[in-house]
Amino acid sequence: MRHDNTALRQCFDVEIYLPALAAPASWTALFGNRNPVELEIGTGRGRFLIDAAGKYPDVNFLGVEVSLKWMRVAKGRIEEAGLTNIRLARTEAAHFFDRYVPSGSLRAVHCYFPDPWPKRRHAKRRLFRWEMGNRFARCLAPGGRILVATDQDDYFNQILGVLDEETAFRRLFTGTVSISTLPRTHFEEKYLAEGRSIHRAEFHRA
Ligand SMILES: C[S@@+](CC[C@H](N)C(=O)[O-])C[C@H]1O[C@@H](n2cnc3c(N)ncnc32)[C@H](O)[C@@H]1O
Fold first, then answer.
1. Would residue 58 show up in a list of annotated catalytic residues for this protein?
2. With CB atoms counted within 10 Å of each terminal CB, which end of the chain scores lower, N or C?
């Protein structure tokens, strides 16, 4: 039988229309249920979100992507897949956290292969600075997790420094082996195929 997603598309929009979103937002209103919410920063083509949302239908996934081009690609793929438990916000992550994410409302934050900005003069553009640790600490529920991956050695050390600085967090894992239960991202597949070593970390919020 042909899978017809038309009805789904009529019920909700994958893309959040930010001017109409309450600040702070209500995830219950946004998703129409009380399931736990996990947020991915830098969704790119949407591969992680689509695989994760398909695998865990009782979890709501929220993607925050600053690029209009990638948000549109991800949105098209999500609609095509007919998944009802993903929403996308096309905006900058720090702004989204500060304006829309209620305190203690997230079960996990995923951030895979954040832009590395390798030149010293661009380092201030990196996503992981101390304020980001503050944001995660405010927005994660007790027991919530932060999962990150990068192929950049020095950025990985910076990320660990930022998250170690937050007294609310405890390191659960750092290493280069895959967390086998997690779907892979586009960049992860690409870098693994190139034979690059990938650093991963998982932190827990007390
Ligand atoms: C290197 S790509 C990784 C994409 C995906 N996570 C993956 O692993 O395949 C980084 C992504 O983060 C997005 N991005 C960069 N800075 C951002 C920010 N401040 N807020 C939201 N998205 C951001 C970029 O537009 C890009 O899509």
1. no
2. N
